[in-house]
Amino acid sequence: MNRRKAKTIKIGDCLIGGNNPIAIQSMAKTKTADIERTLKQIKELENAGCQIVRLAIKDIPDARALKKIKPKINIPIVADIHFNWRLALEAIDNGADKIRLNPGNIYKKSEIKEIVSALKLARIPLRIGLNSGSVRDLNSKRLSMPDKLARAALDYIKTVEGFKFYDIVVSLKASTVLDTVEAYRKVSRLCDYPLHLGLTATGSSLQGTVKSAIAVGTLLLEGIGDTIRISLTDKPLQEVKAAKYILEALQLRNFGPQIISCPTCGRCEVDLLKIVRELENSLAYPVSRLSSSTGKQANRQTGKPLKVAVMGCVVNGPGEARQADIGVAFGKNEGLLFKDGKPVKKVSFNRCVDTLLKELENSLAYPVSRLSSSTGKQ
User: Fold this and answer.
1) Around Cβ 251, how many Cβ atoms within 10 Å?
2) What does the alpha-carbon distance between residue 298 and residue 292 come to, in Å, rounded to a whole number?
3) Where are the beta strands (DSSP E) in 202-290?
4) Quick one: CA torsion of 13, 18, 23, 27, rounded to 10 degrees?
């Protein structure tokens, strides 16, 4: 795919735009001033592979908590500001790496000017973050939601550029797939700033993941987008997992071995779901630790992500297992292990996960199984 040429922006130590990998963002769902709970959630996100975290700054205690949070984490902080422009100044003073402003509720030029002046002194960027639920002029009958979002974004960009400030990231999130896709398409043609992709108010984990995968996936396939957040009514850890799956499905990022498994049917004679869940959980944290700096965990010989097939019947099982780097095709109670397309040995159901983890350990320059027990817990 031909990627849209966007300006490179630095957020803490994370570069976005240009030819940099698509970055994964999430948002802590704690009261920011509750430092202990907020730190715990950020650490979980870090371990899962999140690269940028956004924190809600609702009041002065939230803003001042940033000073205590920042030294204890390893990813940059975006301060999420609404209504009270002075909170942006307080967040900047306390070490925020980026400020997010909502044009729907902070729009006075005098206030924007004060914030931009502080951003310049701190040398940190601004995210102009629009949402369909708070975009101004919602009563206009003449404009569609994508047009409202794009126009509001461009007007705000013009205002900020008028103060000679150009370290800008833009997002235009609607709650529907079609409006979101069209809004990003429009603005992508009219500016060269990095775009942060996502939908807003997507719903529960499954529904939100499906909607986000369609919208974000469509845009990424068109070369649009530089960072993503999969907003879910769920724990933030699920947002990062969903983002990683989307990027891997599009072959834009590699985060570890890719698991290929069949949906099962009446021919399956083992509890395949148990094996897949165990394997997936066992790989989750070790993979993220390796991928946090490079975004890749690969077969040392090919440079491609390893494929692990776990198949439950004789129809497609042997074929998929042969095509994967490591695979097992089950019959009744035991399966046949394949490696690099060749059958190696029989494996019992109870030993399957341990065997696959050991094979992965031998194939990677990283001790996967030593960091994970056979139960998938760390």
Assistant:
1) 11
2) 13
3) 227-228, 258-261
4) 80
Identify the DSSP state of 192. Answer: -
With a CB cutoff of 8 Å and minimum separation 6, the contacts of 333 are 269, 270, 348, 349
Structure tokens at 1: 């795919």
How many Å apart are CA 78 and CA 168, to the nearest integer? 13
Among all chains, which residue has been given the structure tokens 């001033």? Answer: 33
Q: Quick one: CA torsion of 375, 357, 378, 73, rounded to 10 degrees? A: -150
Each residue of 271-291: pLDDT tens digit? Answer: 999 999 999 888 865 433 333
**342: confidence class by pLDDT, cuts 50, 70, 90:** very high
Measured between alpha carbons, how far is 142 from 138 in angstroms, rounded to an integer? 10
pLDDT on residue 299: 40
**63 has pLDDT over 70:** yes
The Cβ of residue 62 has, within 10 Å, a number of other Cβ atoms equal to 22
Q: Which residue has the higher pLDDT, 316 or 23?
A: 23
Q: Give 231's DSSP letter.
A: -
CB 7, CB 18: distance < 8 Å: yes
Tell me the helices (H) and strands (E) count for the chain, helix number first: 11, 15
Q: Which long-range contacts (CB under 8 A, 24 or more apart) does 55-59 make?
A: 55/27, 55/28, 55/79, 55/80, 56/27, 56/28, 56/31, 56/32, 56/80, 57/32, 57/81, 57/87, 57/88, 57/90, 57/91, 58/31, 58/32, 58/87, 59/33, 59/87
DSSP 334: E
Indicate the pLDDT class of residue 321, thresholds 50, 70 and 90. Answer: very high
The mean pLDDT value for 168-188 works out to 97
Predicted local distance difference test score (pLDDT) of residue 256: 83
pLDDT (tens digit per residue) in 132-149: 999 987 556 688 999 999
Query: 290-300: b or e for each residue (b if 16 or more CB lie within 10 Å)?
Result: bbbeebebbee
| Tokens, residue 193 | 């700033």
**Pairwise CA distance, residues 210 & 215, whole Å:** 9
